[in-house]
Amino acid sequence: MTSRPGGNADEHTPLINGESASSAQAGNPLRPQPKSAAFAFFFDAGHTPGNDSDSIAVRSAAYTWHTTKVVLLSGYVNFLLVVVPIGIVAGALKWNPTVVFTLNFFAIIPLAAVLSFATEVMALKLGQTLGGLLNATFGNAVELIVSIVALRDGQIEIVQSSMLGSILSNLLLVMGMCFLFGGLVHRGSNGAGREQSFSAAVAQTTCSLMTLSSASLVIPAALYAVMAQSGSPEKNTSILILSRGTAIILLLLYAMYLVFQLRTHSNLFDEEMQEEDQLEEASSIGPIAAAIVLVVVTVLVAVCAEYLVGSIDDIVESANISKAFIGLILIPIVGNAAEHVTAVVVALRDKMDLAMAVAIGSSIQIALGVTPFLVIVGWIIGQPMSLHFETFETVAFAVSVLVVTYTVQDGKSNYLEGAMLLGLYLIIAVAFYATPSDAFDGSIIRLLGTKS
């Protein structure tokens, strides 16, 4: 009979009453239960059998499956990945435009989540500076890919609306949900309510940049109105020159902002880092595997975006909704779904600095980085992409930035402020939904094309 070192045998000692060591361990609820080989093979993101095999073929196959498994288990929305091949087949076989749009709409949502996961893995392996730059570059990759595809097809109204919609969805929808749900969970007791807090200095800096981007849209709209009133025949050419010059200035300012955030004043942006479980997930695959995932997913997003954008004209005609509503409301949901979930989850955990970094940081990327970049891309490929948005869109953007600035300037938030931001977003969404498809003057875009 075996006994414990330094003690006598007892009822927990193996082989007592005919029990084996394994059965004794299985019967002890205080000891971790061993995972079956099948569970480890299919659901254990930390280890896959075969990774330590002496055979190169077995080891390569195991690591390939391990990377695939980690990617599939990286987010709850990844169950929608089954829609990706169906959406591609629907687009290739020219199914009904509504079906093609719907399938590829839902296909891009999990692809955006996987893209975000692979970017985080690469960022963790590259260090703070290069990782931050990578996040800034790929943080809005889905919106950029969809917009380039639409710009190449001459869908400038869609591009402008999707850029504005991405900014508004982050500023109003995401931040509003963070403030609302986070404020409700951490509201305190009746009569002694509390507010969540975040860095007021960071909020003020980022809101100042958003106000600048708002001015970059107001000035072209004001100039066009003045020149149109005077009957100037060169107004369209002047708008293009102004937009392209402004785009270059905004890109330079965005580069300075990255240096400010990542190098010289990184102490101000010392936001709460990723949760421990995210770090554990990210460390389970290497940077090379993450880079391969990044390339593959980017290609799939481009293909799905091609079919998504190609079906928009038919959707507008059949459903009688404006392109502005599709670009402003629907497309941003696709690209920002993963960020929406992340921001709300960390807000529920009372980590508002990280939630604000996700919401406002993404808006700055779009306003100062992606939108000016698309103006330059349009210049290169001969598409008259400008910063002259529709007057209604410009006003909605300016008002939203003003409301957000007043809301976050004190560095505190509560559920009432979140409800106000969500209310403004819903008002704007209803306004664009109620707008007829031919209400916005597309002749401006056509004139820009002929004058350039």
UniProtKB/TrEMBL annotation:
Source species taxonomy: Eukaryota, Fungi, Dikarya, Ascomycota, Pezizomycotina
Record's GO cellular component terms: endomembrane system; fungal-type vacuole membrane
Keywords, comma-separated and alphabetical: Antiport, Calcium, Calcium transport, Ion transport, Membrane, Transmembrane, Transmembrane helix, Transport, Vacuole
Region Disordered, annotated ranges: 1-29
Entry's family note: Belongs to the Ca(2+):cation antiporter (CaCA) (TC 2.A.19) family.
NCBIfam families per record: caca2, cax
Record's bilayer topology term: Multi-pass membrane protein
Entry keyword annotation includes Lipoprotein: no
Stored PANTHER family: VACUOLAR CALCIUM ION TRANSPORTER
Protein name stated in the entry: Vacuolar calcium ion transporter
Origin superkingdom: Eukaryota
Annotated GO biological process: intracellular calcium ion homeostasis
Family annotation (Pfam families): Na_Ca_ex
Keyword Transmembrane helix: yes
Function recorded in the entry: Has a role in promoting intracellular calcium ion sequestration via the exchange of calcium ions for hydrogen ions across the vacuolar membrane. Involved also in manganese ion homeostasis via its uptake into the vacuole.
Classification via InterPro entries: CaH_exchang, CAX-like, NaCa_Exmemb, NCX_ion-bd_dom_sf
